[in-house]
# Entry
Amino acid sequence: MTGGSLQLTGLTRVHHAGQPPALDDFSLDVPAGSCVAVLGPSGSGKSTVLRLTAGLDEPTAGTVRVDGVDLAGVVPERRGMAMVFQRPLLFPHLTVRDNVAFADRVRGVPRKVARQRAEDFLELVQLGGYGGRPVRALSGGQEQRVALARALAAEPRVLLLDEAFSALDAALREEMHQLLADLRMRLDPTILLVTHDHAEADALADTVAVLDAGRLRQQGQMRSLYARPASLVVSRLLGGRTEVRGVVRDGRHESPLGALDLPEQVPDGPAVLVVRHEAVRVTGSADPAADVVGTVVRARRRGLRALVTVEVVGAGGEATVEAELEPGSDAPTGRPVGLRLPVEARWVVPVEGAAGEPARPPAGASGMRRDRSG
Ligand SMILES: Nc1ncnc2c1ncn2[C@@H]1O[C@H](COP(=O)(O)OP(=O)(O)OP(=O)(O)O)[C@@H](O)[C@H]1O
# Structure
């Protein structure tokens, strides 16, 4: 059932004249068979994207196209889309099977055929044998599988997932992520999903569009967003923890951490250095390869790993750097440590996090510099 292509162009929604738009000139391509995530904090406009796409709300401006066809004026049930919400919204008086068969029955498919198809989709979501049960008897995770089976049974050109796994606990969420990955391999659906969880976007999507205050801030593969956020807003949304204010001069960021070479040429001026905590290596304070030396001021455990906050006192003040330790290693509060900050892991963004502002000249405008500095 390969899905269709979805193209959102200049989508804008103003609820009340004179107020900022809930969504402002939002454009996004979701190629056939791909999964694109819209990642944003609460109130950023994620649901608005889905509501406009599904036809549940009218755009103030802009278009929604599926396979090149403009859907303006097309009612939700004729858009070839199916949506899964955070709550499964199953019909409580129907069995699991009849919930899944519902769309077929409405389309006039004979009961027997619809039920057989429903069983097939229940197999796909690993609920074979559950068809005759009342939905009341299901767990939250199973209910969400039924909701997914019901959406897939409608054979949508585009599947919309609205925080579909957010209400599940971590283990179930991971199971659903695995299930969705399997379904993508087998059915090749086109998926547009929204989430506030960067780990979920990372687990599920081919590309991610970061939304904040109704505007698209950055789009790309998660790996490149982690490594090269365009603004503080994006860095924070992706769980970035280290932000060191300073000034760029001659390709180096100067701050209490010292003058650190950057991986790309960046214009001179005030800028915030961001470094992923996973990329920082914590060593001994006498490590000759350490870029900076500081003191652990806070340590906490995250599963097998520990996360430490290291305070560095340098020229012009102090700064803190967050670092994740190697599994099994330990760095208690008060310990002096060295930090290696690989050049490729350093990145700078504009000081105000003025989202939307280019952080640097267009890619390719300058050569990469790979030399290390202390
Ligand atoms: N019907 C409406 N009337 C007025 N304002 C609205 C309406 N729907 C949404 N908004 C506003 O538009 C903005 C975007 O809302 P939206 O629900 O799309 O955000 P969201 O990112 O999905 O948030 P959440 O994750 O909390 O659901 C918010 O400021 C919200 O208050």
Notes: The pocket of adenosine-5'-triphosphate is lined by residues 15, 22, 40, 42-48, 196 (CB under 6 Å). Residues 353-374 have pLDDT under 50 and may be disordered. The helical segments are 46-54, 96-106, 111-124, 140-153, 170-187, 198-204, 222-227, 232-237. The first strand starts at residue 6 and ends at 13.
